[in-house]
Amino acid sequence: MPQMPTYAYVIASVAVGLVLGWFLQRMQAKRAAGLARDRVRTIVAEAEREAADLIKNAELERREEMIRTRQRFEQETEQVRREQSRRQESIDQREKNLDAKVSFLDRKEGRLDRASEDLESATAEVTEQKKRLGESLTEQQQRLEQIAGLSAEQAKNSLMESMVSAARHGAARRVKEAREESERTARRQAQKILSQAVQRYAADHVAEETTSVVALPNDEMKGRIIGREGRNIRAFEIATGVDVVIDDTPEAVIVSGFDPVRRQVASLALKKLIKDGRIHPGRIEEVVEKTQQDLLEHIREMGEEVCLELGLQNVHPDLYRYIGRLHYRTSYGQNLLMHSKEVAALSAVIAEELGLDAKLARRCGFLHDIGKAADHEMEGPHALIGGKLCRKYAEPDAVVNAVAGHHSDVEATTPYTYITAAADAASASRPGARRESLENYVKRLDSLEKIAESFDGVAKSYAIQAGREIRILVDHTKISDADAALLAEEISRRVEGELEYPGQIKVMVIRETRATAYAK
């Protein structure tokens, strides 16, 4: 048998290798495909499980959301139902109330009708009885006059005279007994205490005047104060409410006015204008307004200083302005601030002699006339006004009673009230303390201004020329030119009917319209 060549073996080996490689590759491909199919089935199974889980979770969330939505709906429905139930109950209650009110009004109307009928019947009956009683009284009176021999008027006068005589006799006897008893026990001690108090506090007194003199640097300043055709002096008098007198007195002008506050404002404002040199209506109004504000602050500071001087502690700050006002008020020509300080000192001395609290007595005496600083703000006697102010600003009860009762307007509850009244009387009655003529003059001017300001549309009023003239500034939006003339006539008639005064009083109503613009 012949041998196969070597290349045939090589080819056969290659062929066998190729077949084996293809067979192995095919086996590997089948195995890889099987693995891929298994993996795909696994992935699909996992995906199906995940999808089932997602669907299940979505279903659970949907059900939970439905449950929550249903719960919210049920809650809102229940809330609406309760609200409607409350409203219905409220409506039912209102209907019941209305029915009850209607029923009550019907019953009341029935009672009123019956009462009206009874009243008419009773009125007719009373009228008839009154008529019969009048006839009977006339008949009885005639009989009594015939029996007594006196007329009804004569009998009445005789009876009244006898009763008055008996009452006077009994009252005089009682008064005499009480006076003798009180004099025996109190005269010596009271005289001793009061004499010691007055001796220990003897203050000088200077009566207030109604004019102030303002010095000028030279006589040429008078012309500047008067102004062209008198416009400056008119504007100053209208703004301050005082009368400026410019006469032959060298280097001086006189400011006249019954109100010390206005007079002080006018004097200070005039001094500022003279020092500044700019004197014209606009500047005058500006300086007067600024001076008024400065004076109010000065009044408050003055009240505080006086309290510190007297050693009064825990005084409410709002009381300072009332205390400071007393410096510009007078009582029968006596300066009220000086009078209050004097009464405070006398009260303290009397309290020391009686063994009482001198500090409390000094406080009572100093504040006793505080109501006179507010009598233009509140109605009533100054003692009651002062008591209200002290109670408002938390003063002790003893102070409130002393202030309100020092003129017996209220019943005294502490001995300090009697001490304050005694010190007040001692201060007012000492020689040279008061001048009644000045007080009457000031009251007349004050009443004149109050009458003018009681009319609607009046902005301000100033009594000048010692009360011989009153200038009235009106609101131009409320008072026309025709109304101004009518207002002057009405005020003059009211003054004639309510005041007593010498000579005549000139009533001047001033109405002006102002327009303001700014050039920029």
Describe the structure.
It contains 14 helices and eight strands. The strands form three sheets. It has a three-stranded antiparallel β-sheet, with helices on one face. Strands 6-7-8 form a three-stranded mixed β-sheet, covered by helices on one side. The chain is mainly α and 520 residues long. The protein has helices at residues 6-148, 152-200, 220-226, 231-240, 260-276, 281-310, 317-325, 336-354, 358-366, 382-392, 397-405, 415-429, 436-453, 481-498, and strands at residues 211-215, 243-245, 252-256, 330-331, 334-335, 458-464, 469-474, 506-510.
Brief summary of the model shown:
With about 525 residues, this protein is mainly α.
Q: What's the Cα radius of gyration?
A: 52 Å
Largest sheet: 3 strands, antiparallel
Instruction: Tell me the span between the first and last alpha carbons.
Output: 142 Å
Percent helix, as a range, is over 70%
Task: Give the SSE order as H and E letters.
Answer: HHEHHEEHHHEEHHHHHHEEHE
Q: Name the beta content range.
A: 5-15%
Given as residue ranges, the uncertain stretches (5+ residues, pLDDT < 50) are 196-208
The shape, in one word, is elongated
Number of helices: 14
The structural class is: mainly alpha
Q: What is the arithmetic mean of pLDDT?
A: 80
The order of strands across the largest sheet is: 1-3-2
Question: Using DSSP, what is the number of strands?
Answer: 8
